[in-house]
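Assess this today:

___
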Amino acid sequence: MPSQSINRLWRSLLDLDRGLKQTLCLLSQEAEVPASAVALVFKLEHEDSLKVNDVATVLGITIGAASNLIDKLEEKQWVERVRSEEDRRIMYVGLTGLGMEQLLRWREHFAEHADLIFAKVPESEIAQFDDKIQRLSQYLSAYNLELEKKR
């Protein structure tokens, strides 16, 4: 059974996750898109392209819902679908120039809010938070890799 400290840490991480998702929802409302659209645009910043079924997996939605989401983002010209040259059945989704511009606007918006949120936190404490969060992320990534290997 996990210790009380680990249970408290887990609850804190879940609360942090909910807070981040709430911020994501607020940003998405301004752009009149679902929060999953914001998440996808940010994911595509680090991927040249994703298969539609990978979009569904990453966002935890059905392939049909992913396709509908991609349709909405194509209407805004933030993403584009590209058919695979090797296998015409496979469709990839990539970020457009307009999508990158939107991402940068969201990032700037996040930065403005982050400045307000952390205005009273000393710089040294922010650096400590960053270090600890990165280490937690590494532990979680290593654990997830081990789980995937067992599958």
